Amino acid sequence: MTKSELRQLRVQLVMMGALFAACIAASAAVPAFDWAFHTYLCRERYAPTPAELRRFVEAAEQGRLDRGEFDRLAPEGKVAIYRDWMSRSGTPPRATPGTLMAAAPEVYGKAVERTLICGRADQRERALEFLELAGDAGAIPMLQRVGRWWMRRNLPVIAERIQMTIGRLEQTAAGRPPASAELSPVFP
Amino acid sequence: MSAKLPSADGPWIDGALRWAGIEPRAFRALLHAYLLIDFRNQQFGRATLSGPKAWVAPMFWVVGQNLLLGFATGVILYERVDVFFFALANLAVSMLVMATAVIVEFNEVVLDPEDLEVVGHLPVPARTYSAARATNLIGYVLLITVSLNLCPAIIGIGLPDAGWAFVPAYLLASLAGNLLVVGALILVYLVLLGDRPTESTRELLAWSQIVLLWIALMGGQFVLLHDRSFRIEMLAYELPDWVRWLPPGWLAWFVASTGPVGDAVAWWVPGVVAVATLGVWVVVMARLSAAYAQMQPGAPAWRRAVLRPLPRPGDLAGPIVRRLTRAGEERVAYWLCTAMLRRDYQLRMRSWPAFGVALAAVVLGLATGQLGDPMKEHSGVCVLSLAALYLLTVPVPTILYNLNFSRDHQASWVLLSAPIGDRVAFAEGMRKAVTYGVVLPVLVGLGIVFAVCWRDPLDAAENVLAGWLAILAAGHASQIGVLRGLPFAAPAARGETMGPIAMFAALVSGTAMSLVGLHYLASQRFWTFAAYLGGLAVAVLALRAAASRVLEQHFVTEAPGHD
Fold first, then answer.
1. pLDDT over 80 at B522, yes or no
2. Phi, psi at B490, each rounded to 5°
3. Is this prediction's pTM over 0.80?
C-alpha cells in the first residue's frame, strides 16, 4: 500500500476503527483481571518501622507507654506504631491496640478508618480486630460511616463484618465482654 | 489525503435532503471537504507533530490520546472508588477535553469566515451550507465524546455497585454533558464575545490534551505505586457536598442511580439536562444559521485576524528591560528574540511544550497534597515542589536551541550582514530573552503558588532563589552546549529541532534532578541551605566565565565566506 493510499479518508477511518477495537479489548480486560487490583494494587503498604520508634512499639505491647514522650511524636510516628502492629507476622500483641487507642483515639481511629476504606480484605479484618481488642466504643460512629460506604458500594459482606464489630464494641461498653475471637491469620 | 467526491447514496437520502430544502450533491461535497479538514486540523497537527504530508492524520492521534486518557483515568479509579465518583471524574475530564477540542477546532467545525473565499462564489444555498456545517459539528462532537468515554464505560461495568445499565446510562450522560458544554461554549463566543477564539487561545488549548495525558500518566503511576495516603480513595469517601452540585455531579448521580444499590433511577436528571441542551442548541443553531447566511459575497463576514504590531523602530525596550540588558548588541538580541517568540507561533509551539512536565508536576502536587514546603516537611511530601522548581531548567536549552530556527530563515541575511562587534553580548541577549523573558515569569508564578500553599512567603522566596540560580546556571551551560551562531537562520527541518541536543537536554534534566536531591538534603538546616545557595552561585559564575570564553571562540556572527 503506497503512502498516498494510506492517506485516503477510507484508510484513515479503518485505522481509527482498529484503534477503537484495540481499546475496547483492553478496557474489557480490566474487569476480567480485577483480582490483580484486589490483591496487589488496592492495599496498604507498610514500610519497616524506624529504629527510633521500636521502644514505643515495645512499650505499647507491654501497656506501659510514656505519655509525655508519646504525645511529642508526630502523627506519622504514631501511625507507624499502628502499622507495625498491622504488619506483624504471627499473632500480634493483644495489649497494643488498647494502649494506643487510649493514648491517641483520634489518630488511631483515623488510621483504622483509612485501612477499612483502602486496605485489602485481610488488612481490613486485622483493623477490625484492632478496634475489638481496644474495646473503644467511641469508634462506633466511624464504623457506621464506613459500613454505609461499603453498603453503597454494594459489598454487604464487608458491611456485615463491620456490623459484627459494632455489636462487640457495644457489648464491651455495656460491661459484657464479647466472646474472644481468634486473631486473623498471619500476613503474607 | 486525497479528496475524492463521494458517490451518491441511495435515492431515499437524496429525497430526504431535498425534502428538507438541501441540495444533496453540494451537501455531500461540503461534508466530505469538512471531514478532510477535521482530519487535517493544523493546530492539532502541530500539537501531535504530524505535518500536512504525514500518512497518519492529526485527528487519528487526537482520538488516540482521548482513548488513552479515558483508559488511564478508568484504570486509576477502578476498584478504588464508588460508581458515583468514577462517573463524576470521567465525565468531568470528558467535558473539559470536549470544551478545549471545540475551541481548538472552532474554525473547522463551527464557523470559518474564510469559507467565504472558497464557497461564496459557488451556487451553494445557505441552507445546504448550514446543514453541512451542522452535520459536521454534530459528528465531531459524537466522535470526541465516544473516544473519551468508551473506555470508562466498559471498565466501569466491573464496579460492584454498577448495574447492567451502567454502559447506556454513562454514555447517555456523557453525550448530554458534552452537547451541553459545546452548545454553551458556542453561545459564549457567538453571543457574549461576538467573535471566534483567538489564534493563540486555540494553539494553547491544542496542547491541553497532552498536558492532561501527562497528568493522568504521571498521576496514575504515582497513585498505583507510591501514594501511601490513598488520596483518591479518601477523596471519594469524604467527597465535599458542593461537588455533587456541579453539572458532572448531577450526571454522575443519574449514572449511580441506575445501579443495584439505592433509590429509584433519577430520570429527571437526564430529562432536565436534555431540555437545557435542547434549549441551548436551538439558540446555537439559530445564531449559527444567521452567521452562515452572511457567508455570501458582499455580506459582512467576521473580521480577519491581524498580526500584533511591533514596537516603534528604535524603541527596543521598556524601563525594566533597559535595566536588565546592556545597550548595544545585548539589547538588540534581547528585543529580536522576544519579538520573534511573540510573533512566530511555530517557534512558540516548539518552545512551550517544554514547560508541560513542570506544569504537570505542579497540578499533580496540588491535587495530591505533595506540594509541601521543603524547609518544613522533611519527607516525600515536598518532592513535587522541588521537582516543579528544577524542571523549569529543562526548557532553557530547548528554547535557546529553537531560536536557531525560523519559518522566515531566508531573511537572516539581514542579521548576517549586520555589524555585530560583541558576539558574547549578543549571545547574552539571547540567553536573557529566554531566562528573563520566558522562564522568569513562570518561576514567579510558581513562587506565588508556593507562597499561597505554604502560607510562608519567605520560604517560597528562598526556594525560588535556589530555582533561579539553577535556571541561570542552565542558561550559561546552554550557551556553551547549544548556541553556535546567529538566531533564526535555519529552517525548522524535521528531526533538527530536538535531535541534535537530545543528549545535552538529558544532561541538563539529569543535573536538575540531582539538584532536587541536594536541595532536599540542604534544606534541613539553615547553614546547609546557605552553603547550597553559595555553591549554586559559584557554579553560575564559573559557567558564565566558561560560556564567555566558548562564545568568543565559536559563536558565528558572519555569513560563510565572510572575511
1. yes
2. -130, 150
3. no
Task: Report whether A132 contacts A166 (CB < 8 A).
Answer: no
DSSP symbols for B143-212? HHHHHHHHHHHHHGGGSTT--TTHHHHHHHHHHHHHHHHHHHHHHIIIIII-SPPPHHHHHHHHTHHHHH
Q: Which ipTM value was assigned to this complex?
A: 0.86
Interatomic CA distance for residues B555 and A136, integer angstroms:
76
- Three-state DSSP state, A146: helix
SS3 category, B485: strand
Point out the residue among B80, B147, B234 whose CB comes nearest to the CB of A114.
B234
Q: What is the spatial distance between Cα B491 and Cα B8, in angstroms, rounded to a whole number?
A: 44
CB contacts, 8 Å: B35 with chain A: 9
Interface probe, candidates B78, B157, B255, chain A, greatest A C-beta count within 10 A? B78
Q: Which three cell numbers stand for residue B244?
A: 455533587
What DSSP designation does B376 have?
A: T
- Record the cell numbers describing residue A32, joined without a space: 476480567
Q: How many residues does chain A have?
A: 188
* DSSP codes joined into one string, A68-136: HHHHTS-HHHHHHHHHHHHT-SSSPPSHHHHHHHHH-HHHHHHHHHHHHHHS-HHHHHHHHHHHHHHT-
Residue that is written with C-alpha cell 488510621 in the block = A111
Beta carbons within 10 angstroms of residue B314's beta carbon: 5
Please list the residues that pair with A149 across neighbouring strands.
Answer: none
Question: What tens digit of pLDDT does each residue of A97-145 get?
Answer: 999 999 899 999 999 999 999 888 889 999 999 999 988 888 999 999 9
* Distance separating alpha carbons of residues B143 and B67, to the nearest angstrom: 11
Is residue B192 within 8 A of residue B123, CB to CB? The reply is no
Query: Can you tell me the distance from the alpha carbon of B448 to that of B452, in angstroms, rounded to the nearest whole number?
Result: 6
- From chain B, the residues in CB contact with A114 under 8 A are 230, 234
Is the CB of residue A142 less than 8 Å away from at least one CB of chain B? no
Are residues B260 and A152, on separate chains, in Cβ contact within 8 Å? no
